[in-house]
Q: What sequence folds into this?
């Protein structure tokens, strides 16, 4: 079934992307619609959900109809309201949106933190959702929805790209969250070894840094709670003196799963000619 859902997502997304491309304003509006849908579910706004779902809505897997989908959402809302300490915390990001004037697909990642995971301990797991929308009577409605769990290979691939994005944005909170407490890095510039605090401080320097980067050739190997990712990172930016650079770095990242989530444990880079 997971294979079917992934094929379904690719076929639908490809079909819409061939027909037309959304403007940035269209994409922002559709992302806002999706987030409003999530908020309606979390707050138990049944009337809003009735307007969001089309009458002929079909959810996969299980061929769930509109009534069943809303009933399931309301049941979860009531359970969370009765016992908020047991409620999952969900964030949505990594949006991929395609549309025509009257149809759209929205794909995004869901990061779910549950306080009662494996062995009763808190745990983080990831899923991906694929929504199909149509504009009816001048407003968007959800006509179909599918989703699937992400395995560790998919999660680590996302995390590698998140790492690059965080470097460009100088997103300190990402590094504080996803670097292990005993993280170490070997610099591709001078071979220096840094710990977590030192590496973050270097990234957060007010001058210099990455302006653009792109990953390629990712190879992911997993053994239990440890993973090795090898790849090439093409990076463009400026050094501390404002001099532009354009580098390709072959890297080896070591990840460890702790507290129910993957964390960067070590990294080493080698400058390519």
A:
């Amino acid at each position: 079934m997971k294979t079917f859902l992934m094929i379904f997502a690719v076929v639908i997304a490809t079909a819409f992307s061939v027909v037309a491309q959304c403007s940035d304003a269209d994409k922002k509006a559709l992302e806002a619609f999706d987030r409003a849908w999530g908020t309606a579910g979390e707050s138990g706004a049944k009337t809003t959900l009735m307007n969001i779902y089309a009458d002929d809505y079909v959810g996969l897997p299980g061929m769930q109809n509109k009534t069943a989908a809303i009933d399931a959402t309301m049941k979860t809302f009531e359970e969370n309201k009765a016992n908020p300490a047991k409620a999952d915390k969900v964030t949505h990001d990594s949006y991929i949106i395609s549309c025509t004037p009257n149809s759209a697909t929205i794909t995004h990642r869901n990061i779910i933190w549950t306080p009662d995971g494996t062995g009763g301990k808190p745990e983080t797991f990831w899923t991906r959702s694929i929504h199909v929308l149509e504009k009816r009577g001048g407003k968007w409605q959800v006509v179909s929805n599918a989703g699937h769990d992400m395995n560790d290979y998919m999660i680590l691939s996302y995390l590698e790209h998140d790492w690059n994005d965080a470097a460009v944005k100088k997103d300190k909170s990402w590094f504080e969250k996803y670097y292990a407490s005993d993280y170490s890095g070997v610099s591709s510039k001078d071979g220096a070894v840094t710990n977590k605090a030192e590496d973050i401080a270097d990234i957060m320097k007010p001058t210099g840094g990455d302006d653009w980067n792109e990953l390629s050739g990712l190879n992911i190997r997993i053994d239990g709670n440890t993973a090795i990712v090898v790849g090439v990172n093409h990076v463009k930016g400026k050094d501390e003196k404002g001099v532009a650079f354009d580098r390709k770095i072959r890297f080896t990242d070591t990840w460890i799963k702790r507290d129910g989530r993957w964390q960067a444990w070590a990294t080493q880079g080698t400058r390519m000619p």
